[in-house]
Inverse folding.
């Protein structure tokens, strides 16, 4: 996840000086203040590990982070810098809260545009109260709204991103996923294309975790990873299938009242299908929290941001023989295309990946 407006302090001051009449100024101010609070709390991990007064469990987790960090640069060719070599305890469960919004009869997420990073499909706040207040304003305007707590964000290489208490308690798998994902944002970032950015980082995350456990995991861990990936694929398929049903309804000639009624039925059927899947496989309970919250267009669309183009990026990686440097070079070239050209290329890659997967399964 990228957080808007993360830039060098001196650059921010000079740019914001000319924005004093802009309605975004209070937002920029809280973003700068919030990020520099994170920076202020950061301490070098090596110093913490060497400190006898630091909790042994924290030391163990930080040691694992250092191993993952080294692996990321060596095996995945991700940036070798100071990101994730320091640690900050924010004394709260999330670092930011992101607000997502969609019209009640559309799956198109609302965009917000910012200095440096362009337009993104969410607006992040370092304060939950501020996020909820802004979300309520959007609801009053008729939007479907989702507020999500975020445990990490990327500064896109402008700063050295620290490890945070918000995710240090993660399992080894989730720690690896998060670190690989956030470092991927430092490889390539395309303003105004959140789905491209997040799907690319998700593809890198998946490949990184696969390689990590291939090198360091036990047979049981690799089996657990495969099971988890199958579960996630089933969840994404469930969401995407009902998303397409909603898209058809929203694009139909039915009245708005009828569209709203069909929308409600689709969400009910989606929840019922989830409960059926959950009864068949206990591990699907991992999505209880997701389904416990109100389902709406914004919540549904957030899944697409992180997964829409993952098959396309996986196809590009396969085309490059799993060579990360060649893969990154191709993705960087894609990032230089216009949005329309980029999406056409990704659609072709995704189609080839689907065909390749079908052939592979047929031979198993």
């Amino acid at each position: 996840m990228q957080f808007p407006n993360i830039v060098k302090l001196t650059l921010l001051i000079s740019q914001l000086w000319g924005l004093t009449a802009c309605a975004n100024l209070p937002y920029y101010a809280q973003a700068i203040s919030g990020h520099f609070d994170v920076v202020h709390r950061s301490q070098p991990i090596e110093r913490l590990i060497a400190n006898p007064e630091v909790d042994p469990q924290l030391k163990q987790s930080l040691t694992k982070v250092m191993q993952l960090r080294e692996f990321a640069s060596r095996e995945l060719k991700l940036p070798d810098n100071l990101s994730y070599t320091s640690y900050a305890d924010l004394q709260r469960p999330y670092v930011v809260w992101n607000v997502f919004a969609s019209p009640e009869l559309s799956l198109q997420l609302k965009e917000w545009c910012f200095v440096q990073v362009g337009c993104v499909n969410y607006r992040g706040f370092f304060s939950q109260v501020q996020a909820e207040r802004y979300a309520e304003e959007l609801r009053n305007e008729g939007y479907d709204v989702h507020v999500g707590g975020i445990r990490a964000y990327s500064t896109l290489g402008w700063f050295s991103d620290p490890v945070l208490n918000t995710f240090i308690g993660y399992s080894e798998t989730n720690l690896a996923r998060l670190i690989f994902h956030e470092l991927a944002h430092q490889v390539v970032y395309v303003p105004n294309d959140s789905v491209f950015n997040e799907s690319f980082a998700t593809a890198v995350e998946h490949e990184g975790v696969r390689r990590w456990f291939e090198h360091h995991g036990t047979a049981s861990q690799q089996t657990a990873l495969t099971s988890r990936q199958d579960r996630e694929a089933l969840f994404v398929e469930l969401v995407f299938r009902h998303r397409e049903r909603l898209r058809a309804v929203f694009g139909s000639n039915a009245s708005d009242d009828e569209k709203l009624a069909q929308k409600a039925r689709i969400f009910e059927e989606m929840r019922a299908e989830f409960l059926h899947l959950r009864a068949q496989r206990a591990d699907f309970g991992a999505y209880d929290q997701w389904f416990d919250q109100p389902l709406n267009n914004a919540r549904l669309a957030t899944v697409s941001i992180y997964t829409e183009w993952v098959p396309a990026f996986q196809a590009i990686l396969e085309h490059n023989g799993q060579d990360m440097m060649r893969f990154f070079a191709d993705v960087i070239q894609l990032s230089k295309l216009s949005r329309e050209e980029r999406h056409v290329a990704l659609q072709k890659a995704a189609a080839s990946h689907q065909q390749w997967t079908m052939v592979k399964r047929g031979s198993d």
Q: What stands out?
A: Residues 219-363 form one domain. The radius of gyration is 21 Å. The chain is about 60% helix and 10% strand.
